[in-house]
Amino acid sequence: MTGVTDISHRKKFFARGNVYLPHIVVIDKIIDETPDTRTFHFNFKDEKPGKEFAFEPGQFAEFSIFGIGEAPFVISSSPTRSGHLEFTPRRVGRLTNALHRLGTGAEIGFRGPYGNGFPLDFLQNKNLIFIGGGIGLAPLRSLIWNVMDNRNKYKKIDIIYGARSPADLCFKYDLEAWDKDKTVNMVTTVDKGDEAWTGRVGLVPKVLEEVAPSAKDAVAIVCGPPIMIRFTFPVLEKLGFTPEQMITTLEKRMKCGIGKCGRCNIGNIYVCRDGPVFSYEQIKSFISSEY
Amino acid sequence: MASKKINKKDIAKLLSQWSQEFTVFVPSTEDGVATMAKWNGKDTSFLDWYRNTVIPPKANILPAMEEMFSFQKSKEGYHIELPPTNGHKQLIFGIRPCDAKALAILDMTFKEAYEDPYYLSKRDNMVLIGLGCTNPYDSCFCTSLDISPAESTDVDLMLTDIGDELLIEMVTKAGKELIAKAKGLKEATKADDARAKKAKEAAYQKVSRKIDTEGVGDKLSACFDNQDYWEKAAAKCVSCGICTFLCPTCYCFDINDELVKQQGTRFRSWDSCAFPLYTKMPMENPRLEKWRRVRQKVCHKFEFYSMDFSVIACTGCGRCIRLCPVNWDITQTLNNLPEKTR
Fold it and tell me: Is B342 touching A (CB cutoff 8 A)?
């Protein structure tokens, strides 16, 4: 993927003209995931955009608190689960701190969806290995639920998910659900356990090496902190995965979300416009090493 | 259609006619800084002093700061409102060929994929009256970018100084319509055309600074990881960002909110790859070091932009050279690219 991505199919939602104008969405449920991460359930305030809105797993949106500012977050719910949308910001900066102070009923700005999303067609009829770390499960879970809700379109599913500590595991209710599901091999790990933790202990790349999924007819989808991704790719290569079989999402500072404001570039690639989902093959072809 | 001409003394009359239909902008000084500002209805002295503006005409389309919308909170929740549009058409008089080309380059970004309504609403309601350079700066290098200082196809009308008169050439349909309506113009003679041709050639010869654009993208690509070169190239840069703010093709922007008593605005403002904050994320920053930012600036213009749009995002206007507080010179950086990759 170089140059301009064809996004004509996504432009429909913006037929009303101004892409920078946010819709008003209302927060109707808040879930504490970890000490610093919350999931917000929200719905469109107006009926019409709520009905028209469509997205693909892996796409993101620009969320804003009026008076504080805007930032991009992946939509962490699955398009197959209608009724509401979700996003899961970790408290790290000014906007996310303000988001974490909001209660239900709060109105925030929302514009999107942006970005390419995961290549669903490419994943069909394949064995899928989801490898996530920490908050990196947010984009993965959108895809995982999408896959679960169309289970017969995909083959074997492995999920390897890790966090620093048991308290830092996100979406524990999902982890439980996937663990109970007989069609899924769910492996949860923590870098460091606590007194109550009886599960696996070990870094994600190490656990991946132990689980050793076969590369045959498989695609690995890796989301997590850069350090985890950096150590996971070599393990996958050792297991026989080719760069085309390795998919990840990249993160950069963004403002506009539509390839204009300039800052999220890696060479001529704009992560917001051409990504955020890339195969390792594509990443290796980037002319810039700034990822 | 044959060219026309107008006596310089009659320019004010012509601008007055155009003022009926357009908001006319001419080269002016505001607080001592040359910019395209609203014509005051009489002054045409810019014909004597104007070489080029400090602030490029991009500011007429992509202002340094611009309201995107306002928002207000009431019992019913948030209400969003677009800023009022005055519906005014802009006429920019005296734009240089380099700056007109710059707008054509900017169009590509703002028209691509998602259209930018703030940019395009102004750009689509604008006519450009070009005025050829007769006295380029020694920092100018437009001819290296296939731009002739006194010729342009990116304007609606092109004017050339032929002494006491200005020769007028019609470039676009909009330009022809302007001329059809204009009063007080004379037909240009063959001698006038010949004088204009000579003036254009003379201007072209005066641009002495050169860069070699042949294969520049490949050369930049090859030395992208040559940290040593980029550290040296960036050594004296003070990261003030003025070269990007005053660059006619730089368009990077920031989006921010301002809030006073439940009533606020979301606005966008020029931003710059020269600043470390521009790419700062909570946990990391891909361009924290200065040499990475200087490399981004050079490579974006001469390598990345042409990968997307097949055009170099530089017009050789020379502002980044003559207005730099530490005399950083992009032509030196480009003319000494090493073959060593690391």
Answer: no
